[in-house]
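Q: Could you fold this chain for me?
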Amino acid sequence: MSEKFWESFSEEETEALGERLGREARAGQVYGLDGDLGAGKTVLARGFAKGLGVSERITSPTFTIVHEYREGRLPFFHFDVYRLTQEDALWDIGWEEYLEAGGVCLVEWAAQRRECMPEDTVWLRIRKDPERGEDYRRIEWGGEEAL
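A: Sure. Below is the predicted structure, expressed as structure tokens.
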């Protein structure tokens, strides 16, 4: 069971939560983000970047694996590891260097590369619940067991 959760009833609320988390983020933190397709992972990432002071347009790095943003108060490294099927693939693109770069890493689909995530990863899971409405999201914060 997760330690904490938030409820969102719109894309704007999900983005606002991401912004709050981004404002509170510290250098060296890794956020592991998981949820179904269309759950709002990139929406949360967009808000997160805004909270770090990034003004560039945030899109999912699905095909490039990582987007780097260095204009905010901390470097922001936004990963999407959905397409990485090999266990070593994240290491092959320089994962260790990103972890040591003094920025914040936010990794979409992080549970798929759980073996690469640091012990102190902040795990977030976004869940949809059609019974609560099309735009409803439950964002859970907790340890690996939350995933």
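A (continued): The helical segments are 11-24, 41-51, 89-92, 95-99.
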